[in-house]
Design a protein that fits this description.
The complex is a heterodimer of chains A (354) and B (185). Chain A is built from 14 helices and four strands. By secondary structure, chain A is an all-alpha fold. Chain A has one domain (73-353). The termini of chain A are far apart. Chain B is mainly α and 185 residues long. Chain B folds into three domains: 1-88, NADH-ubiquinone/plastoquinone oxidoreductase chain 6, subunit NuoJ (Four Helix Bundle (Hemerythrin (Met), subunit A)); 95-119; 123-185. Chain B has eight helices and no strands. Chain B has helices at residues 3-28, 32-52, 56-81, 85-88, 93-116, 128-134, 136-144, 149-184. The longest helix of chain B is centred in the C-terminal third of the chain and has 36 residues, at 149-184. Chain B is extended and about 80 Å long. Chain B starts with a helix and ends with a helix. Classes of the chains: A mainly alpha (354), B mainly alpha (185). Chain A binds chain B through residues 9, 11-12, 83, 85-86, 125-127, 130-131, 133-138, 140-141, 144-145, 148-149, 156, 159-160, 163, 167, 185-187, and chain B through 1, 3-4, 7, 31, 33-34, 37, 40, 56-57, 60-61, 63-64, 67-69, 72, 75-76, 79-80, 135-138.
Chain lengths: 354, 185
C-alpha cells in the first residue's frame, strides 16, 4: 500500500489499523461508562422522586468529567499492612478483564472506508462465547485479590462473598447460553447474529435462557438485588473499602463496563445483535450500530430499573436461588432446546428414528 | 519479509519467557498468594501458546478451568487459612537435596531428548485444512461423544464422586458437632 508515496507493507498497515481500532474502542467504552453512570443517577433519582445531578454544566452533563477530575486528584491511600503489589494490581485486573471481554462483540456490520473494510469488532474468533466466559472467570481475581490484599476484615469477608457468588452464578450464566449454542451450533458471535437474520431472534425459542442469563448477569456484575459483596449496611463497602482515588474509580469503571458488556452479549445472542427489528423498512434497516446501541441501552435501563425497585437479598437466599431454582431451570432449558431440535427438524428426526 | 512468521516468533518467545519467569515465581515467592498468582500467569502464558498452535478451544478451556476455577479455589483456601509466613517458609534439607537431584536429572533428560531429536510425526486424519473446514470445537465434541465417550463419562463420574465425597465429609463434621452439643446437654 502506498501512503504519501512511501511503500508500506500490508501487514504493518493492518497492524496500525488494529491498534487504532483498539484505542477507539476503549475510548468509546470509557465515554459510554461515564454517561451510563450519569444516566443511572438520573434514573434512580426519578424513581426515588429526587432531582439528581443537575449542577455541573448544562443539566448536569459535565458531571462525569467533574467526577473523573475529583477521582484523579484525591489522595491515594495504601494501608500499611497491605500487600502493596497485589493491592495495586487488583483494580488493574478488574478493568483489564472488563475491557478485554468487549473485544469479541460485533457492534455492527463491517463498514468500508476508502476501499478498506473495517470490521466493527476487535477480534472475530471462533470460540468467542467461551472466550467471554473465560474472561469473566478471570475477572473474579480482581475482586478476590482486592479484598485479601487490603488486610481488612470487612474487605476479606466482602471478597469471599463475592468469589462464592460470582463462581455460583457463573454456572447458571454458562448453562443459560448452552441453548443458544445448541440451536446455532456455533460459538462465533457473527455466525450467531447471521443465524438470527435467517431464523428470527433467539429470544423467541430461548426466552427462558434469556431471563436466566439476565438474572445471572445482574449477579455477576454485583448489582442490586445481588450486591452482597459490597453491602454497605453490613460490610462497610465490601472488597474495595480500603481503596481511594483512581484505584476506587477503576473498580467503579470495571463494574459499569461489565454491565455494558453483559447487556451487549445479551443483545448479540438473544436480540439479534446489530440487526434491525424492521429490516423491510429501508431507512430503519440501515444503521446497524445504532440499533445495537439502542438495544443495549434498553437492557441497561432494565438493570437500573431493577436497582431502583428491588431490596437486597439475604446471603442464604442468594445461594439457594441460584443452586436450587436457577440451575435446575437452566438444565430444563437445555432439555427443552434439545427437544425442539430433535422433533422440529425433519432431518434430525429421521436420523433419530433410524 | 515474512511478517507472519516474525510475529509468531516474537509472540512465542515473549510468552515462553513469561511462562518461565512466572514458573520461577511460583517456586521462589515467599507469600503463598503471590505464588498462586504466578501460577495464574503460567496458565495464561500456556494459553497463549495453545493459540499459537491453532488450538483456541484448549486455550480458552485452560483459562476457564485452571485459572478461573482451580486456582480461585486455591486462593480461597489460602485466604481463609491465611498461613503465616514463618510456618510456610520453613526449609527441609532432605527435600531440598532431593529436589535438586530431580531437577538436574530432568534437565539432563530434556537436553538429551532435544539433542537426539525426533522427526516430526506424519500428519494424521486431522490436517489443518480439515480442522479449519469442519471447525475446531465441532471435531473435539464429536470425538468426545464417539471414540472417547467411555473415558469422558468415567471422568465425569470421578468428578461427581469427588463432589459427593466432599459433601459427605462436611456433613459428618457438622453432625459430630451437633452430637457433641447434644451430649453436653
Amino acid at each position: 500500500m502506498n501512503i504519501f508515496g512511501i511503500f508500506i507493507d500490508q501487514v504493518i498497515v493492518d497492524f496500525v489499523i488494529l491498534i487504532i481500532r483498539c484505542v477507539v474502542w476503549i475510548f468509546a467504552l470509557l465515554t459510554t461508562f461515564a454517561y451510563i453512570q450519569l444516566v443511572e443517577r438520573w434514573v434512580i433519582a426519578k424513581i426515588q422522586v429526587r432531582i439528581g445531578p443537575n449542577r455541573t454544566g448544562p443539566r448536569g452533563l459535565l458531571q462525569p468529567l467533574a467526577d473523573a477530575i475529583k477521582a484523579l486528584f484525591k489522595e491515594e491511600l495504601i494501608p500499611t499492612n497491605a500487600d502493596k503489589l497485589v493491592f495495586v494490581i487488583a483494580p488493574m485486573i478488574s478493568v483489564a478483564t472488563a475491557l478485554l471481554a468487549f473485544a469479541v462483540i460485533p457492534v455492527g456490520p463491517p463498514i468500508t472506508i476508502g476501499g478498506y473494510t473495517i470490521p466493527m469488532q476487535i477480534a472475530d474468533i471462533n470460540v468467542a462465547l467461551l472466550y467471554l466466559l473465560a474472561v469473566g472467570s478471570v475477572s473474579v481475581y480482581g475482586t478476590v485479590l482486592a479484598g485479601w490484599s487490603s488486610n481488612n476484615k470487612y474487605s476479606l469477608l466482602g471478597s469471599l462473598r463475592a468469589a462464592a457468588q460470582l463462581i455460583s452464578y457463573e454456572v447458571t450464566l454458562g448453562l443459560a447460553l448452552v441453548g443458544v449454542i445448541m440451536l446455532t451450533s456455533t460459538l462465533n458471535l457473527n455466525n450467531i447474529v447471521s443465524y438470527q437474520s435467517n431464523f428470527g431472534w433467539l429470544i423467541v425459542p430461548q426466552i427462558l435462557g434469556f431471563i436466566l442469563y439476565l438474572i445471572a448477569a445482574i449477579a455477576e456484575t454485583n448489582r442490586l438485588p445481588f450486591d452482597l459483596p459490597e453491602a454497605e449496611t453490613e460490610l462497610v463497602a465490601g472488597y474495595y473499602t480500603e481503596y481511594s482515588s483512581i484505584k476506587f474509580a477503576f473498580f467503579f469503571m470495571a463494574e459499569y463496563i461489565n454491565i455494558i458488556t453483559v447487556c451487549a452479549v445479551a443483545t448479540t445472542l438473544f436480540l439479534g445483535g446489530y440487526l434491525s427489528p424492521v429490516p423491510f423498512v429501508p431507512i430503519l434497516g440501515a444503521p446497524g450500530i445504532w440499533w445495537f446501541a439502542l438495544k443495549v441501552f434498553i437492557l441497561i435501563f432494565i438493570f437500573m430499573w431493577i436497582r431502583g425497585t428491588f431490596p437486597r437479598m439475604r446471603y442464604d437466599q442468594l445461594m439457594n436461588f441460584t443452586w436450587k431454582a436457577m440451575l435446575p431451570l437452566a438444565l430444563l432449558n437445555v432439555l427443552i432446546t434439545a427437544g425442539i431440535i430433535v422433533f422440529m427438524q425433519p432431518g434430525v428426526a429421521q436420523a433419530f428414528a433410524r | 519479509m515474512d511478517y507472519g512468521a516474525l510475529m509468531e516468533g516474537i509472540v512465542f518467545y515473549l510468552f515462553a519467557a513469561l511462562a518461565v519467569l512466572a514458573a520461577l515465581g511460583v517456586v521462589i515467592a515467599r507469600s503463598p498468594i503471590r505464588a498462586a498468582l504466578s501460577l495464574a500467569l503460567v496458565f495464561l502464558a500456556l494459553a497463549a501458546m495453545y493459540i499459537l498452535l491453532n488450538a483456541p478451544f484448549l486455550a480458552v478451556a485452560q483459562i476457564m478451568i485452571y485459572a478461573g476455577a482451580v486456582l480461585i479455589l486455591f486462593l480461597f483456601v489460602i485466604m481463609v487459612l491465611n498461613p503465616r509466613l514463618d510456618i510456610v517458609g520453613g526449609r527441609n534439607h532432605a527435600q531440598t537435596i532431593a529436589a535438586v537431584i530431580f531437577a538436574v536429572a530432568l534437565g539432563v533428560l530434556m537436553i538429551a531428548a532435544f539433542v537426539a531429536g525426533q522427526p516430526a510425526p506424519a500428519l494424521g486424519q486431522f490436517t489443518p485444512e480439515f480442522v479449519s473446514q469442519v471447525g475446531h470445537v465441532q471435531i473435539i465434541g464429536a470425538l468426545l461423544f464417539s471414540d472417547y465417550l467411555l473415558l469422558f463419562e468415567i471422568a465425569s463420574v470421578l468428578l461427581l464422586v469427588a463432589i459427593v465425597g466432599a459433601m459427605t465429609l462436611a456433613r459428618r463434621e457438622r453432625d459430630q458437632h451437633a452430637n457433641a452439643k447434644h451430649d453436653l446437654r
